Model the fold of this input.
Amino acid sequence: MTNIDTECCGQHEVCEKQLILDALREEIEYYEDEELDRFRGVHSDEYMPDEIAEFREVLYTMRPDEVSGWLHSLQLRRVELPDELKDEAILLMQNE
Done:
């Protein structure tokens, strides 16, 4: 038996477009990390060790319950988290 999502309108392209527009309207919350905006457009596997250290410093200065919000903030700002820190961020969120 197939589960039908009663919230779905059946027009996925319209729904996806609305989600994108809603995300663009979302206010960005900063975590005293404005300096990371200079990495906009850098791919997650292209960071140098000193740049990864900058992200790590921000990551470890926040409470575990702030990590998911910070990751969302980076996403809205189009700043990719370095690959080397993804597992660490997940572990911190699990300790929330």
